[in-house]
Design brief:
Layout lengths: L9 H30 L5 H26 L6 H35 L5 H85 L3 H19 L6 E3 H19 L3 E6 L8 E3 L4 H12 L6 E10 L2 E8 L3 H7 L3 H14 L4 E6 L4 E8 L3 H6 L1
Parallel strand pairs: 2-4
Antiparallel strand pairs: 1-3, 4-5, 5-7, 6-7
Helix pairs in contact: 1-2, 1-4, 2-3, 2-4, 3-4, 4-5, 4-9, 5-6, 6-7
């Protein structure tokens, strides 16, 4: 028995349909012989032979019912059953005619039976009704099998489509994160090279050489890192220190730094290179515009299930308020939204003296991540 649909799906469905067909017709033959077995008398040889022929032909014609059922997969439920009616009636008529043409002579030859015309017509009608019932039952079972198979296949395709959509979304998010990450490096590099150029022009060659050496070390740490990496806060602070060493050459005693982070939060996981733009913003808008000493303070703390990092300075608040959210802070906010959704927050506001930036992300410790 072949399936109505080509491909790998058809083979299991065809096997199931074949087993079902053999089971139904086998049960029908068993029910035919039960009365005789119960009475202890075997049925007449002619009757048995004609019924075996009836069942064999019905078994073969069931293939046509199965094929017709397979052509109705795009129809609605009631229409699918109605579409089988002509096929069922035609095949039942074939069975009735076959019994008259073949079954009758077989019974007459083996049992010596010579029924009247009325008896022949009555038997043909009975065979027609019995065959119609058998084909209708099989047709309904075929339709249910095919519907279940189609539903399963659609669910599988939907699951595959969802998996592909999630994979595409993940790739898009990764590409966006990488673009945001690498948008920051040229910004910082441009500022640093300008400072090196100014040092060379003013004859401060030792200072320029020191800045270049520290810049090379900083770029080695940052550009070699995975832009999508989630790293311990301790590593991010080390990167900040490398960055501030460069800026300390530019501003000398005008730049003061104070880091505050509890030991238990050093292993808190944070996106790579997410704090440097905050520090750079404080240097650019808090330290650079003024001639007096400015202190940049970074404080990490835990607030329930969140990690909170504050970067603030005591520079000129008016200058920073006018600058608003620059490229660096905007990109950090976008990165947090991509990674954490609504739980990734960046807030920035001027203070009475200076500027404050706060980021809040879900707290995850490195030891917990390894255990998971």
């Amino acid at each position: 028995m072949t399936a109505p649909d080509a491909g790998s799906r058809s083979s299991p469905l065809s096997r199931q349909a074949a087993i079902l067909t053999l089971g139904v017709w086998g049960l029908d033959m068993l029910l035919f012989g039960l009365p005789s077995l119960a009475a202890g008398k075997p049925p007449l040889a002619g009757v048995t032979a004609s019924y075996v022929l009836f069942a064999a032909l019905g078994l073969l014609l069931s293939i046509l019912v199965y094929r017709r059922a397979g052509l109705t997969t795009r129809e609605d439920g009631a229409i699918r059953f109605a579409a089988l009616v002509p096929t069922v009636l035609c095949l039942a008529a074939v069975i009735a005619v076959f019994d008259m043409v073949v079954g009758g002579p077989v019974r007459a030859m083996l049992d010596g039976a010579h029924p009247t015309g009325r008896a022949i017509a009555a038997r043909a009608a009975g065979q027609f009704l019995m065959a119609a019932w058998m084909f209708a039952l099989l047709g309904a079972l075929y339709l249910m099998m095919i519907a279940l198979r189609v539903t399963h296949e659609r669910e599988r395709q939907l699951a595959d489509a969802r998996a592909q959509a999630l994979a595409a979304e993940a790739q898009a998010s990764a590409a966006r994160l990488a673009a945001l990450r690498y948008q920051l490096n040229p910004h910082f590099l441009f500022n640093t090279l300008n400072a090196v150029s100014a040092s060379v022009v003013t004859g401060r060659n030792d200072e320029a050489e020191s800045m270049l050496a520290r810049l090379a070390e900083f770029l080695r740490l940052t550009l070699a890192a995975d832009p999508q990496a989630i790293i311990p806060l301790e590593d991010e602070l080390a990167t900040l220190q490398a960055y501030l060493e460069i800026e300390s050459v530019r501003f000398r005693d005008r730049l003061g730094v104070a880091f505050s982070c509890p030991n238990e939060l050093l292993g808190a996981l944070i996106p790579s290179f997410v704090l440097q733009p905050l520090i750079e913003n404080a240097v650019k808008h808090g330290v650079a515009p003024t001639s007096r000493p400015v202190t940049i303070r970074l404080e990490a703390s835990r607030d329930g299930d969140d990690l909170v990092v504050i970067v603030e300075d005591d520079g000129e608040a008016a200058t920073q308020a006018a600058s608003g959210m620059g490229v660096g802070l905007t990109n950090v906010r976008q990165r947090l939204e991509v990674l954490y959704g609504a739980r990734g927050v960046l807030q920035a506001a001027p203070r009475e003296r200076g500027f404050l930036v706060l980021i809040r992300i879900p707290l995850a410790l490195e030891t917990q991540a390894r255990a998971a």
